[in-house]
Specification:
The mean pLDDT is about 90. The chain has helices at about 5-20, 25-40, 45-55, 65-75, 80-90, 95-110, 115-135, 140-150, 160-170, 170-180, 180-200, 210-220, 225-235, 245-260, 265-300, 305-310, 320-335, 340-355, 360-375, 380-390, 395-420, 420-430. By secondary structure, it is an all-alpha fold. The protein is built from 22 helices and no strands. The chain has one domain. α1 runs antiparallel to α2 (about 25-40). Helices cover about 75% and strands about 0% of the residues. The protein is globular and about 75 Å long.
Length: about 425
């Protein structure tokens, strides 16, 4: 057996064993990479250390901590709450109104923070108690919030797309633009699914219709929140600032609104916001560092070429190739979180897609979308755990509640495979 084949076996077994033992993902990646280095007779502690540093030594990755900080500031400074209040003022009185509020708020918040976990936590914290008080089934409500929360990595700005762009050397600006239409379609899919679900609910209370004067007043209070995505996306589209600079602008804007406009956050509270953002950043960056070790060894073992040989016959049929690769990623997404999936498998799969004539930006959007669906797919299902934790619910109840929306997302994924122009055409138009 060749050294490359042995390294591939070490990679697969290492990840399965370490994850099964409950080893944190970043450490599992480093240990697996070290095992591959030993198998390839390429053991060098200095090389491992250099790759750990190289994994986070990237200017575009600076966008990650600033988008994380922007999300924390949004929640602490009342921006998220005002978005939800505005959505509730306009659609809270219709049948299933609070569900539509959830979807609308999720899409608006997605255009500001780019973090599925932050958006989901904010939605669940504010809306789950409301929906419980109005008689909504908690499982279905929690499932809807989990499904709405994962729109954040698709609609720009998106932290996973930043990581994907850095990892594969793909234009982050174009990746951002590619997510606008798919994100809207995801929201519409949730609207249709919730409409069907809410029609079968009984005993649910509705809000009293609000006079238009009051609706406009609530909307005016959300003005500064609504201005944020226009500044971020408009600034990148016009070339005023790069995606990395956009993250800094988003964080600074959220800080100014929280301190000076809404005045719901004090300087004393800022310490806690910065601490939470720093902890989350440390987790993401350590994942990037650990994944670089494993990714370097994967490249050294020439696994992309091996995988190309296995899938070589499919390069003549791009749609079939996409279907197969997305199917593989669906399986991977049930076991790995989104960030390590991007860091390890994107550099391996992208060359195969390019060889088949698949647009790199389109492939990036599909890759991130597929990994995002994994956030609401057991057994990992990070977003499911967030909702269950915030709502103090059993995880299996949230899983049952999210299943209808999971089916909707898989149908949308197949739609994009069948008609890639849905993704590529808007990008060409927006460039």
């Amino acid at each position: 057996m060749s050294l490359e084949a042995q390294a591939f076996i070490v990679f697969c077994l290492g990840m399965v064993v370490f994850m099964g033992l409950g080893v944190p993902m970043a450490f599992a990646l480093v240990l697996t990479g070290a095992g591959m280095a030993w198998t390839l007779d390429f053991w060098d502690t200095q090389l491992l250390a250099q790759n750990l540093v190289a994994g986070i030594d990237s200017f575009p990755l600076l966008a990650v901590p600033f988008f994380i900080l922007a999300g924390e500031l949004m929640n602490a400074g009342g921006i998220s709450r005002r978005i939800i209040e505005m959505a509730r003022a306009w659609v809270g009185h219709i049948r299933g109104g609070l569900g539509f509020v959830t979807i609308g708020a999720a899409m608006l918040m997605a255009s500001m923070s780019g973090s599925a976990l932050a958006d989901t936590a904010a939605l669940a914290t504010i809306l789950l108690p409301m929906m419980k008080a109005h008689g909504y089934p908690m499982g279905r409500s929690a499932g809807l919030m989990a499904a709405g929360g994962i729109i954040a990595p698709i609609i720009p700005p998106s932290m996973p797309m930043v990581i994907y762009g850095v990892t594969t050397n793909t234009s982050i600006s174009q990746l951002f633009l590619s997510g606008i239409v798919p994100g809207i379609i995801m929201g519409l899919g949730l609207v249709i699914a919730w409409r069907i679900e809410s029609a079968r609910m009984t005993g649910v209370q509705r809000d009293e219709p609000m006079p238009y004067k009051d609706r406009l007043r609530v909307t005016a209070k959300a003005f500064w929140a609504l201005l944020m995505p226009l500044i971020i996306i408009g600034g990148m589209k016009s070339g005023v600032f790069t995606p990395t600079e956009a993250a800094v602008v988003a964080a600074f804007y959220a800080l100014m609104v929280a301190l000076l406009v809404h005045r719901e956050m004090t300087l004393a509270q800022l310490h806690g916001v910065l601490t939470r953002a720093a902890k989350t950043t440390a987790i993401v960056m350590f994942l990037c560092a650990g994944a670089q070790v494993a990714s370097y060894m994967v490249t050294l073992a020439d696994l992309p070429t091996v995988l190309t040989g296995w899938l070589g016959g499919l390069t003549e049929n791009p749609k079939l190739l996409m279907l197969v690769m997305m199917g593989v990623l669906v399986v991977i997404g049930t076991a790995l979180d989104l960030t390590p999936t991007i860091l390890i498998f994107a550099p391996v799969m992208l060359p195969i897609a390019v060889k088949a004539g698949i647009d790199p930006v389109y492939f990036g959007l599909m890759f991130v979308l597929n990994g995002t669906i994994g956030l609401i797919t057991p057994p990992v299902g990070t977003v499911l755990n967030v909702v269950a934790g915030v709502g103090r619910m059993q995880l299996d109840e949230v899983i049952r509640g999210v299943n209808p929306y999971l089916i909707v997302y898989l149908a949308i994924l197949l739609l994009f495979i069948a008609f890639p122009q849905i993704v590529t055409a808007p990008v060409l138009w927006l460039r």
